[in-house]
Amino acid sequence: MKKIIHKSETRGIANHGWLKSYHTFSFASYQNLERMNFGMLRVLNDDVVQPKMGFGTHPHKNMEIISIPISGALSHKDNMDNKRSIDIGEVQVMSAGTGLTHSEFNDSKTNEVNFLQLWILPEIENVTPYYNQKMFDKAGRKNQFQVLVSPKDKLVKGSLPINQQGYISMIDLEKGFETEYNLYDGAYFFLIEGAVSVANEILEKRDAIGIYEVEKVSIKAHKNSKLLIIDVPMN
């Protein structure tokens, strides 16, 4: 078993006033040669957007982009005629492929938006761009792994497809609950809320651990917790 531990306070921080972004891996002005990626997971940004602010129209190409709201709602608009709001409990996926443009905006006049955005390197480049989003029932992740995203050629029923052999799952753990996670390849565990032990390493809010070269790991909740698992090829 190999482990990489990333404590919350070691993340890069960019504060633009309208946006505060915590970067797990090198991104924009935060560059750290020791924090370039975890396997095919290239970006994990924890973004807080102020009311009536957002990201103007910008391009993406050859990247699998997954957005997960933690609080508030994020408005999305793209050049594929998608104009949607992404709410808590929803997950959005975009296969940028040959290229797309989109914008993201916080329409609220009073409330911040906090969302996670993941970039996963694609299995095949220059595919036709794809967009989808889905609301997931929180009852489906109470003390069990709810698969949110999976490979388009091995799609787990009820999940959203991406162009990579990657699986993204979430679990809401009750204090004292113990379970095991079976790895597909390398799994990156990001703790959204609470306190847990993963492979005997204690994680607090927004801490993370990447684990690979092992078949399964133990998980125990020390508080009520919300855990995100990003399982991706390591090479």
TrEMBL record:
Gene3D superfamilies: Jelly Rolls (2.60.120.10). SUPFAM superfamilies: RmlC-like cupins. Residues 148-232 form the Quercetin 2,3-dioxygenase C-terminal cupin domain. Signal peptide: none annotated. InterPro entries: Pirin, Pirin_N_dom, Quercetinase_C, RmlC-like_jellyroll, RmlC_Cupin_sf. Residues 11-120 form the Pirin N-terminal domain. It comes from the Bacteria. Belongs to the pirin family. PANTHER family: QUERCETIN 2,3-DIOXYGENASE (PTHR43212:SF3). This is Pirin family protein.
